[in-house]
Design a protein that fits this description.
Length: about 240
């Protein structure tokens, strides 16, 4: 039995490839119409990950790069949520990776020339596998805003980059999340390329006071929805076997 296809991508939620106000898109955007292709076998099978692929503490950015007795500088936060498909089913055992700037807005990258200070106790990346309910969590610091050369005085809002593999490459998502209440979100040329305001809201992590740890860290919730299968009949037949 052949598994059913995944839902087609809804292009209305995606920005146009060519958006001149986001200057990098001018050189990166294709000049010819895109082609629509069927999913290949490699796109609908795997990858698979096991707990042995992840080192203990990989999801704790407060400690995974810190020196002995050291701790990163900045506002400590708990970032958590669930990975679901479009049928609201959890996606378990999938790899979630994040990378980010430190509290001063600087990445640990040799080509980052921003004058913000490097933090010797912060590496800025982590990964984790979702549990049986599709849940994930990271401890980290809230990244700082930083300037970039898109315009004379453009600043990126605080953000964290996210990669999610899903249960197949057809579901893989690479995106970035922002933080509730940040005034720079509305001024960001990248965010402004998204045509639907509701889609922008999907990129904002919400303050979660129920999970905030008193005198320790503020929590933000960011749920992620991947494309689901068109039908659950295949899954139900397999369960019946």
């Amino acid at each position: 039995m052949t598994p059913p296809d995944y839902y087609s991508r809804d292009r209305r939620w995606h920005p146009p490839a060519f958006t001149p106000d986001y200057k990098t898109s001018v050189s990166r955007s294709p000049r010819l119409p895109l082609l629509s292709l069927e999913n290949t076998a490699s796109e609908i099978t795997g990858p698979t990950f096991a707990p042995t692929d992840i080192a203990p503490g990989d999801n704790d950015l407060l400690t995974n790069f810190a020196r002995a007795g050291g701790s990163p500088i900045g506002e400590r936060i708990l970032l958590h949520g669930r990975v679901l498909d479009e049928n609201a089913r959890p996606v378990p055992n999938t790899l979630v990776e994040i990378w980010q700037a430190n509290a001063s807005g600087r990445y640990r990258h040799k080509k980052d020339g921003y004058l913000g200070a490097l933090d010797p106790n912060f590496g800025g990346c982590g990964r984790v596998l979702t549990d049986d309910n599709g849940a994930y969590a990271f401890r980290t610091v809230k990244p700082g805003a930083y300037p970039w050369r898109n315009g004379i005085n453009d600043w990126r809002p605080a953000h964290i980059h996210v990669s999610v593999f899903g249960s197949a490459f057809a579901q893989r998502l690479i995106t970035q999340l922002y933080f509730e209440g940040d005034p720079l979100i509305a001024r960001c040329p990248i965010v402004s390329t998204i045509p639907d305001p509701a889609a922008v809201q999907q990129l904002i992590a919400r303050l979660d006071m129920n999970e905030t740890r008193p005198l320790n860290m503020i929590a933000y919730r960011f749920d992620i929805v991947l494309r689901g299968r068109r039908s659950t009949m295949f899954e139900n037949r397999m369960e019946g076997n």
